[in-house]
Design goal:
19% of the residues lie in helices and 23% in strands. The chain is of the alpha+beta class. The protein has one domain: Umud Fragment, subunit A, CATH 2.10.109.10. Strand 11 and strand 12 form a beta hairpin. It is globular.
Length: 242
């Protein structure tokens, strides 16, 4: 007799196995996508220091765009996240920093009279906490490197201490603050800063930048010292999101 009309037996164990298999596939795919997005597209960071006040406050949560700089170079005024430079690594810094781009490759930068001067033009900065209370002799930013300063000029461990940031150390650009909710919004570069004319052809060797190159009147209080391992930005996983 033919078995064509015989009903198929129900196997609940097989159904449960298929369900969990699909769950594992979904979780695995989600993990792969999350890692891929974080590695190549964007990632979240939080701010544990006051070096970027008033623009960024302690515990602000940010989205870092990691794609833009694969297509176009950083621009003056961008707020960037970068890995420690060689000079910082030598001081046992391992976590990322966040600062604002002030000098592009070839730019002449100096700080005097409480003003930052780029290519002979005083930088119009409406984003800083207060005017810098230190002096910096003219330096020339080397090719493929950038000069970065914290918006909290007198409480920021930045390029006027330890030098320039190579392009390959830059992780990405801070684009959105997503926490706290009352400060939700984009982090836009300062347009007045971007208007400065670039210096097309660097012809001078860069002057040294660092603690040894500062004058005795350059007494600032950074948010950290070489003996205090305090990063500028961290991953949210390192601290629970409120």
């Amino acid at each position: 007799m033919s078995n064509l009309n015989k009903p198929t037996s129900y196997n609940p164990q097989q159904r449960d196995d298929n369900f969990w298999l699909e769950v594992l596939k979904t979780v695995g795919m989600s993990a792969v996508l999350a890692v891929g997005i974080r590695q190549f597209v964007a990632e979240a960071r939080y701010i544990p220091s006051e070096s970027m006040l008033p623009t960024l406050k302690v515990n602000d949560r940010l989205i870092i765009d990691k794609v833009s700089y694969r297509l176009n170079p950083p621009q003056r005024g961008d707020v960037v996240v970068f890995n420690p430079t060689k000079a910082l690594e030598d001081q046992n810094y391992h976590d990322a920093f966040i600062k604002r781009v002030i000098g592009l490759p070839g730019d002449r930068v100096e700080v005097r009279g409480g003003q930052v001067i780029v290519n002979g033009t005083v930088l119009r900065e409406n984003y800083i906490q207060e005017r810098p209370q230190y002096q910096l002799d003219t330096v020339v930013v080397p090719p493929d490197q950038y000069m970065v300063l914290g918006d909290n000029r007198n409480n920021s461990y930045d390029s006027h201490y330890w030098g320039f940031v190579p392009k390959d150390k830059i992780i990405g650009r801070a684009v959105v603050r997503f926490w706290p909710l009352d400060r939700l919004g984009g982090i836009q570069p300062d347009e007045a800063t971007k208007e400065l004319p670039p210096l097309i052809t660097p012809t001078d060797n860069p002057a040294p930048v660092g603690p040894d190159s500062r004058t005795k009147t350059d007494q600032v209080s950074p948010e950290r010292s070489p003996n205090v391992k305090q990063p500028d930005v961290k991953l949210p996983e390192a601290s629970p999101t409120p």
